[in-house]
Amino acid sequence: MVPGLLPVIAVLVAAAVACAALLRARRATQRYELLARHTTDAVSRHTPDGTVTFISPNGHAVLGIEPADAAGTPLAALCHPEDRDAVRAAFARAVTGEDAAVMFRAPEGSSWHPVEMTLERVSDARGRVAEVVATTRDITARVEAERVLRASQKLHRMVLDHLPDAIVTVYDPELRIVALHGADLSARGVDRSAHLGRTLREAAPDDAVVLEPELERAFAGEERIFEAEGPSSGRRYEVSLVPYRDPAGVPIGVISVTRDVTRRHELEQDLRHLADHDALTGLPNRRRFEEEMGRHAAHTRRYGLEGAVLLVDLDHFKHINDTLGHATGDQVITRAADALHDTLRATDVVARLGGDEFAVLLPHGDVDTAAETASRIVGAIRVAAETWGVTASVGVAAFADHSPGDPAAIVVAADHAMYEAKRRGRDGFAVAPGSSSAEAA
Fold first, then answer.
1. Separation of CA 5 from chain center
2. Helix spans in 162-303 (H)
3. What are 241's strand-pairing partners?
4. What digits encode the pLDDT tens for the residues 204-213?
5. Do 182 and 163 meet the contact criterion of CB atoms below 8 Å apart?
6. Predicted TM-score (pTM) of this structure
7. Does the domain at residues 38-138 carry the CATH identifier 3.30.450.20?
8. Which one-letter DSSP state was computed for residue 204?
């Protein structure tokens, strides 16, 4: 070998290796920049001090700078003055190798628009920072969507927090209360801070006895609507439970809407009472009496015949209405109803059928017992209506002496007996034919 040739060869080999590395680097850069040109994001390269060395063609749309003018521009010049400290801090984190991302306002003509920049360090062969690559995305649409969502959520909270007649509660799968809304919660005895974050059993153990089984059914996918009484308040509530689901359709929470329906419940009870009670006397009306007769008839068919029906008609009542007026007539009716109520047992049923006619169902006893009761009724009404000279005629019919399968037939028999009592002179009672063990009085 020619003396001194070895060092020359070594230099040439090193130069060739360096050239090959440089060529590979240039090709990688070309490929990288080619990809950057075809993305909607802005891709930029920066020296370790933040100076721009390259920016993709989309840089103008995203960062407000022409790619041809970008080289040598400090990174901080690409953002709003108020955002520069945050951008510098993010870049410093990227230089040290940390994952870094930052949102800031980038120029857009004479205004600004929101962008999000992700920064990543690129190291050389020795592990030293060579450059920082940034990917910047226009997030105007996302920010606007988030703004609309926040506004919508705020509106929904305002609506929920001002519902005058409802409390909205959201439960997670552990029955933990994650949201609680409603107007004047404190006035309703609900402490929001004492409920949020706690399980139903922790926040309201008495309510949990009723609600937990219903919530479990809701988490199983059922929509539930039911009424319950407050264990301590005695008020009536209507509760609606609706599960909400994840994208796979699995229930991940339950929304509960609770309304105080106490007044509605009271009105419904009043309406039911009015539907089957007489408005003047408060006694059951004909409809309710027929229902009671039907129930008792079914009972006698199964357990044996007993009991009786009494029909009571006031004597001379029409004369009272015609001469003294309907107000006095109403007073007579009320006195007679009170006398009947005070004379009968708690298990007996007394009803006003209409006008001056009353009916009594004696569920227990035989015809003799019914006759004794009829006699007491005649005497009680004679005393109660003595001021007006009104008496009563009573007809008695026992279940044992008539078809128990036809309650109407028993009432007809008692009605005939009542007219028999009137025919005999009024102020007394008569027993329907077939009841030989009792006599008319």
1. 94
2. 192-195, 200-203, 205-219, 262-276, 286-303
3. 224, 256
4. 888 888 889 9
5. yes
6. 0.53
7. yes
8. -
